[in-house]
């Protein structure tokens, strides 16, 4: 199996590196020293280093997608984020409820009191930038660049420029290019950005109170509040504790700290709260009531936290009930499996040794980073019924502080009077860089690595992983919609599901302005309701899609006033004539 061979190669490389480090630590030292000197000299130009890391993340992420195929939304969460992005890109914060809204009900989308995404606007803001430019995936790549650049800026506040640049390259290797953070619309990078801003700013304001860093800290807090509020709060607790302790110190430090740190944070935070209040008001009619709360109240069956109770015994949305039934029968990973997946995703073999060294050589403010990582992981393990890697994205910044700190400690280790640790540290960095280059090249050429995240495969198959045929479904949907849009005119697709339909294959998602969309997706409910739907959209060409056929195809909707059809040139699709 490719995954087994991949693991054997990695272990063999690690054993070879350790053997050489113990016996011949001076091998290639002159070449490595020269490369390191040039790298550290370049890293002294701090902003150039930040831009370089961010640019590499954007270029690497785009190269993979462009060389293979642009990711399409698959998980219901992705469609929710994209609805929010398209709404913001159109200049609105919410959309009016459609008269036929029951035919458009889908997971993660709120239909009443307004037609909006369930989720906070953090990811949508990023994707909206891409939507304005041309494609939402551009927002995904931009998020990867901003997050990795922010990690470099963060590390510059904790370490010397050279080691900070190396740590940022390690973050780029691990999460910046080839993960679903930068190759899907499921999110992750906005929370990484928020956490990096917070922990990059807090060290700066503790060393020397400054307004700019304080504003960056407040912006980071705001980003976590509008992306992952629960995990963001856990990741921020150590920062709040340290800031309060510092603010209570004696004069004259306290006055200066309050003026340059606390005041800017409060002012920026107040602006963020006012904007969120207005955002909530436009969506739900109440400044303190979020769309997430309304959606949970109206549709949620399973509890949000493990200690909660089910909100509803039966959801009015059939797709939610089907999803709850499906998840009950699906294999659920254990907490131990979750921890292994988090270790594989964020740490892996390469970072284990630096992380252990950081834990055993902890000092000074590095405890803040450790507590942040522990709080987020602990909160997810204890409180979240389902756990995915992007849930823990707020802790990515603190985590790479620990890895970089451990790498600096590794460089100082001597064995038998020889600088064994320095050789291992250099080889580790070179190994990560080489792996990243090979991974980008391989995936760009279509070589897919088998996924090692079992619970993720149960719900999603990303563009970078091999998996069951279900992975082709989002591209089938996009191709159908694209063919109809290119044919011209307006279309309605009525989607019919079987009783055993997989609820994770949801076809019915629409643009913010449904009536003006070229293609409208609607679910079949019953003959009477479906007839009213067709009468409402009488000026459109009407299609029927049986979504659970082995090869779903569009067919003319039966019973139209005219059976005459026209064809879309080059598509092989027959179009029913417009209903009168």
Summarize the structure in words.
With 580 residues, this protein is mainly alpha-helical. It folds into two domains: 13-329 and 338-443, no CATH class; 471-576, no CATH class. Helices cover 59% and strands 6% of the residues. It has 20 helices and ten strands. The protein has helices at residues 2-23, 29-43, 46-67, 76-89, 122-133, 136-156, 161-176, 189-207, 211-225, 229-247, 253-284, 291-299, 318-329, 335-360, 366-383, 396-411, 420-444, 454-459, 473-487, 527-536, and strands spanning 109-110, 116-117, 449-450, 465-466, 491-496, 519-523, 541-546, 554-556, 565-567, 574-576. The protein has a four-stranded mixed β-sheet with strand order 6-5-7-8, covered by helices on one side. A two-stranded antiparallel sheet has the order 1-2. Strands 3-4 form a two-stranded parallel sheet. β1 (109-110) and β2 (116-117) form a beta hairpin. The longest helix has 32 residues, at 253-284. It is globular.
Quickly describe the structure.
The protein is mainly alpha-helical and 580 residues long. The chain has helices spanning 2-23, 29-43, 46-67, 76-89, 122-133, 136-156, 161-176, 189-207, 211-225, 229-247, 253-284, 291-299, 318-329, 335-360, 366-383, 396-411, 420-444, 454-459, 473-487, 527-536, and strands at residues 109-110, 116-117, 449-450, 465-466, 491-496, 519-523, 541-546, 554-556, 565-567, 574-576.
Tell me the helix content: 55-70%
* Strand line-up across the major sheet: 6-5-7-8
Q: What pattern of helices and strands is seen along the backbone? A: HHHHEEHHHHHHHHHHHHHEHEHEEHEEEE
Distance between the termini: 58 Å
Total helical elements: 20
Largest sheet: 4 strands, mixed
The computed structural class is mainly alpha
Q: What general outline do the C-alpha atoms trace?
A: globular
What is the subunit organization of this protein? single chain
């Amino acid at each position: 199996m490719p995954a087994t061979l991949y693991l054997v190669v990695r272990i063999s490389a690690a054993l070879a590196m350790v053997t050489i480090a113990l016996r011949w630590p001076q091998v290639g030292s002159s070449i490595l020293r020269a490369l390191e000197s040039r790298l550290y000299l370049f890293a002294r130009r701090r902003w150039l280093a930040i831009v370089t890391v961010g640019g590499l993340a954007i270029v690497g992420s785009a190269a993979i997608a462009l060389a293979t195929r642009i990711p399409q939304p698959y998980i219901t969460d992705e469609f929710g984020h994209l609805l929010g992005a398209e709404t913001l890109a159109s200049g609105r914060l919410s959309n009016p409820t459609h008269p036929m809204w029951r035919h458009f009900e889908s997971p993660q989308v709120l239909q009443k009191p307004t037609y909006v995404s369930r989720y906070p606007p953090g990811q949508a803001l990023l994707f909206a930038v891409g939507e304005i430019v041309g494609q939402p995936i551009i927002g995904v790549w931009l998020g990867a660049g901003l997050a990795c650049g922010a990690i470099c800026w963060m590390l510059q506040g904790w370490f010397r420029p050279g080691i900070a640049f190396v740590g940022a390259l390690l973050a780029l290797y691990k999460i910046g290019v080839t993960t679903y953070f930068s190759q899907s619309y499921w999110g992750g990078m906005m929370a990484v950005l928020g956490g990096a801003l917070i922990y990059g700013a807090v060290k700066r304001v503790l060393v020397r109170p400054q307004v700019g860093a304080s504003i960056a800290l407040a912006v980071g807090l705001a980003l976590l509040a509008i992306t992952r509020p629960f995990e963001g709060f856990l990741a921020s607790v150590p920062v709040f504790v340290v800031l309060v302790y510092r603010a209570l110190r004696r004069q004259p430090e306290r006055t200066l700290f309050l003026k340059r740190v606390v005041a800017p944070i409060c002012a920026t935070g107040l602006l963020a709260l006012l904007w969120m209040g207005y955002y909530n008001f436009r969506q739900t009619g109440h400044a303190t009531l979020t769309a997430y709360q309304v959606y949970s109240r109206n549709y949620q069956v399973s509890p949000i936290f493990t200690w909660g109770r089910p909100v509803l015994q039966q959801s009015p949305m059939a797709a939610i009930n089907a999803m709850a039934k499906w998840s009950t029968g699906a294999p659920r990973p254990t907490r131990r499996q979750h921890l292994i997946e988090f270790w594989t995703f964020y740490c892996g073999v390469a970072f284990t040794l630096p992380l252990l060294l950081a834990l055993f050589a902890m000092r000074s403010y590095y405890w803040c980073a450790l507590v942040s990582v522990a709080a987020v992981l602990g909160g997810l393990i204890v409180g979240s019924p389902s756990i995915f890697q992007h849930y823990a994205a707020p802790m990515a910044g603190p985590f790479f502080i620990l890895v970089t700190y451990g790498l600096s400690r590794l460089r100082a280790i001597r064995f038998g009077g020889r600088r064994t640790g320095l050789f291992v540290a250099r080889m580790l960095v070179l190994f990560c860089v080489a792996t990243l280059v090979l991974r980008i090249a391989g995936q760009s050429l279509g070589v897919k690595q088998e996924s090692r995240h079992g619970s993720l495969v149960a719900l999603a198959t990303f563009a970078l992983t091999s998996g069951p045929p279900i992975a082709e479904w989002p591209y089938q949907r996009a191709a159908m919609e694209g063919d109809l849009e290119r044919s011209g005119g307006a279309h309605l697709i009525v989607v019919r599901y079987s009783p055993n339909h997989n609820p994770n294959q949801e076809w019915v998602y629409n643009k913010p302005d449904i009536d003006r969309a070229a293609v409208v997706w609607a679910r079949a409910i019953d003959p009477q309701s479906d007839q009213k739907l067709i009468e409402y959209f009488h000026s459109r060409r009407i299609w029927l899609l049986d979504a659970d056929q082995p090869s779903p195809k569009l067919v003319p909707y039966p019973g139209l006033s005219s059976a005459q059809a026209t064809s879309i040139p080059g598509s092989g699709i027959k179009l029913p004539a417009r209903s009168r």
